[in-house]
Design goal:
Radius of gyration: 21 Å
Strand content: 15-25%
Distance between the termini: 40 Å
CATH architecture of the largest domain: 2-Layer Sandwich
CATH topology of the largest domain: Beta-Lactamase
Number of domains: 2
Order of helices and strands: HHEEHHHEEHHEHHHEEEHEH
Strand order of the largest sheet: 5-6-7-8-3-4-9
Helix content: 40-55%
Shape: globular
Structural class: alpha+beta
Number of strands: 9
Largest sheet: 7 strands, antiparallel
Length: 311
């Protein structure tokens, strides 16, 4: 079968066996085609993503059911799984800014250090909106304190979008109902507020961003001082088994200082009385509408899956 036929079957019609798909990915990885040098061949880690998504194409319902177990109430409840308790205790021990997120990057819990780093307090009004509890959406609104805390925020955002798309804990859910609804809302907000998410998402999903997975370093303004931090440190993944038996990975992640100015700023954060206090999304989500599972378009399907015994 020619490369042209393989490309037509895969790209236009979404058809092909595992063998054909492997040939397609191998062709994308080729350094030269018909003797001509390829300017931007697919990298090995990018090829891995495509192959994994192909293998998961018939497991969408199972993945949707796994995501359907996510609930902001779980982490602060008496029926919290033991694995999640372990992760929560680690968050409580953090003296640096940190959060616990799910595979879709919704924030289930955050410590006081993280709130104050990004210009928030426990009483801040933005915490009463769902966007404040999502790592990507939190910077969309022009009046967002989180956006204001970042100097030259748009310079760092494309790399963050790439990390979201290529996150090994996230991209397997790319074609689930929940992820599609989340992406639809992120794109809507991007257009509403003139944000750059849509542009960078399209480039990320084409593996067409002109940089690698570099450290997520950004400049922050805190207490009238500017300094640099790096995101993703610490990064601790914890597999949690739900009451329904589904296994899903939560992550404790945060931010660390870069350089002496960052060290001094983080020392100031440690002196804030509620530095290690944990705040839960559930306490602000009074109408139970923040998480994508609670959005009407998702909730009606989840309830039907449960009634039908499919989840």
């Amino acid at each position: 079968m020619s490369n042209e036929t393989i490309s037509r079957n895969i790209e236009r019609w979404g058809k092909g066996s595992r063998k054909v798909f492997n040939c397609y990915v191998d062709a994308l990885c080729a350094q030269r085609v018909n003797g001509v040098r390829v300017e931007q061949p697919l990298a090995p880690d990018e090829a891995k993503i495509l192959r994994r998504l192909f293998d998961l194409r018939r497991k969408t319902r199972q993945l949707q059911c796994r995501l359907a177990t996510l609930d902001f109430e779980t982490i602060k409840s008496g029926y919290r799984p033991g694995e999640l308790t372990i992760l929560l205790k680690k968050l409580q021990q953090c003296t640096t800014p940190a959060v616990i997120i799910d595979p879709l990057w919704f924030i289930h819990a955050i410590n006081g250090a993280a709130l104050h780093l990004f210009g928030l307090s426990p009483e801040s009004a933005p915490l009463n909106r769902w966007v404040a509890w999502h790592l990507l959406a939190a910077r969309f609104r022009p009046d967002s304190p989180i956006r204001a805390a970042h100097r030259h925020a748009d310079l760092y955002y494309p790399l963050t979008v790439r990390y979201f798309f290529e996150d090994e804990g996230t991209y397997p859910y790319l074609f689930t109902l929940q992820m599609r609804l989340l992406l639809s809302e992120l794109n809507r907000l991007s257009q509403l507020y003139g944000h750059s998410f849509t542009k960078w998402w399209l480039q990320a999903t084409k593996f067409n961003l002109p940089f690698g997975r570099e450290p997520l370093i950004r400049t922050i303004q805190f207490n009238h001082r500017q300094f640099q931090i790096v995101a993703g440190r610490p990064a601790i993944d914890q597999v949690v088994t739900s009451a329904a038996g589904y296994r899903i990975t939560f992550r404790l992640t945060g931010w660390s200082p870069v350089g002496e100015a960052g060290d001094r700023a983080f020392e100031s954060l440690r002196k804030i009385p509620d530095c290690q206090t944990v705040y839960f999304a559930a306490d602000y989500d009074r109408d139970r509408s923040f998480h994508v599972n609670c959005w009407p378009a998702a909730n009606k399907h989840i309830e039907s899956w449960i009634r039908a015994g499919e989840c």
